Amino acid sequence: MTLEVGLLKKESLLNRVLASLMHLFSLLLTFILPILVYMVTKGRNDYFANHAKEGMNLHFTFFPILLVLTFVSKKINMVSILSFSLIILETILIVIATIYTLKGKKFSYPVIRYFKV
């Protein structure tokens, strides 16, 4: 059940918790979970579809960079520090998105926009 507040919809606590869990569990399942959530919810629930797009934008930006850094770090050990730092940054962004989503606030990852929200 949603309430109209000005131009913004106030999502139910259940929807906010589920969207927050999607962000949080994407730490383990990377881009797979947002893709699954998007495929199931597109056309049915814009709230979940938009959060899934945000998750896909994050992971499709970070994943290729981490992949390249992983291959390069086998040749240059100092690159592994950069790779680890990027993983920490991604984790921090996901935790922030989880908190914002739980509070019902809008959060956009500062990444490349592959999917428009």
Give the secondary structure arrangement, pairings included.
Elements lengths: L2 E3 L2 E3 L2 H17 L2 H10 L4 H28 L5 H25 L14
Antiparallel strand pairs: 1-2
Helix pairs in contact: 1-2, 1-3, 1-4, 2-3, 3-4
Instruction: Quote the beta fraction.
Output: 5-15%
Overall tally of domains: 1
N-to-C CA distance: 22 Å
| Portion of residues within helices | 55-70%
Main location: membrane
Keywords: Membrane, Transmembrane, Transmembrane helix
Pfam families: MamF_MmsF (PF09685)
Subcellular location: Membrane
Question: If you had to describe this structure to a student in words, what would you say it looks like?
Answer:
Keywords: Membrane, Transmembrane, Transmembrane helix. It comes from Lysinibacillus pakistanensis. This is DUF4870 domain-containing protein. The chain crosses the membrane at residues 20-40, 56-73, 79-102. The chain has 117 residues and is mostly helical. It has one domain (3-102). The chain contains four helices and two strands. Helix 1 (13-29) runs parallel beside helix 3 and helix 1 packs antiparallel against helix 4. The longest helix is centred in the middle third of the chain and has 28 residues, at 46-73. The chain is elongated, with a radius of gyration of 16 Å. The two termini are 22 Å apart. Mean pLDDT is 85; it is low at 1-8.
Report a brief summary of the structure.
InterPro entries: MamF_MmsF. This protein has 117 residues and is mainly alpha-helical. It has helices at 13-29, 32-41, 46-73, 79-103, and strands at 3-5, 8-10.
